[in-house]
Amino acid sequence: MHTTYNNREDIKDFITENRQLFEEKLLSEAVNVAEKINDILRTGNIDLLKNAERLVIYIVESNKKELTDFARKEGIAWAQHSLTLSFKLEWVQAIRRTLWEFLYQFELKKLKPSERENFFSLEKRINDSIDQFLNNFFISYSDYKDELISKQRKNVEHLSVPIIPISEQVAILPLIGSIDSYRMATIEEKVLNDIARFKIQSLIMDLSGITDMDVEVIDKFQKVLDGINMMGCTAVITGLRAELVRKMIHLGISFDRKAVTKGTLQQTVQDFIKLN
């Protein structure tokens, strides 16, 4: 029984020896990517032709570990440089078609028709390997992007919690816009860290830029006030809007036991300046 398709070294050598023809066929199969191949090399230092040969060798050798590692590295590289995913998909599918064309040519060259079972065994192995590469590539790409977005959002949220010192012991935290649970968690982290870092004894929290908070956020805000007190710092709340006060009254919520409440930020700052 002939096992032409199972001779992996022969197939690998055949593709390597015909590298130029392989690349020409590949470029003809992926027209859109071919037009961008130099741009991708310049943008991300990614050599698509070299990487295509590397991928094909891993597939032919059934080297699953190297294939998976390579896919993950490629996913991160494409995510880092924000390269178009449709190009990657077109490129890998072109690699699939080109590889099958060369397997056909390899079979003709050997003049030994393989048995049907051997062919379907190879077909499954090749396609499973390419699908494995694509799955790991897209998972890696997506995970990297999600992590990047999370870091960027965290950085933005930290910038939206500006603690401004007005003396060695007093600082202001103006809060503007809507506050959800995620942002309140950022406020808690930033406030407690900065109180310890700058040895703040009084933190003036101006809420004049906030029109509303849902019940869950108000509850979390109360816990932030508890944390401020536990740090030995006095929380001073200014600028409570009428709408928010009415809502708190109806909910039976008050900040009086957890913080000093005052009218305007301007008057509060003036009072602290006189005291200091």
Q: Would you kindly provide a written description of the structure presented here, covering whatever features stand out?
A:
Strand 1 and strand 2 (170-176) form a beta hairpin. The chain has a five-stranded mixed sheet. The model is unreliable at 1-5 (pLDDT under 50). It is of the alpha/beta class and 276 residues long. It has helices at residues 8-17, 19-29, 31-44, 48-61, 64-80, 85-110, 116-159, 181-198, 215-230, 242-251, 265-275; strands at 164-165, 170-176, 202-209, 234-238, 260-261. Helix 5 (64-80) packs parallel to helix 7 and helix 8 packs parallel to helix 9 (215-230). The chain is rod-shaped and about 95 Å long. The chain contains eleven helices and five strands; from the N terminus they run H-H-H-H-H-H-H-E-E-H-E-H-E-H-E-H.
Helical content stands at 55-70%
The largest sheet is: 5 strands, mixed
How many distinct beta strands? 5
Shape descriptor reads rod-shaped
**Sequence stretches where pLDDT stays below 50 over 5 or more residues:** 1-5
Cα separation of the termini: 96 Å
Report strand %: 5-15%
The mean pLDDT is 84
The secondary-structure element order is HHHHHHHEEHEHEHEH
Number of helices: 11
What is the fold's blueprint, element by element?
Elements lengths: L7 H10 L1 H11 L1 H14 L3 H14 L2 H17 L4 H26 L5 H44 L4 E2 L4 E7 L4 H18 L3 E8 L5 H16 L3 E5 L3 H10 L8 E2 L3 H11 L1
Parallel strand pairs: 2-3, 3-4, 4-5
Antiparallel strand pairs: 1-2
Helix pairs in contact: 1-4, 2-6, 5-7, 8-9
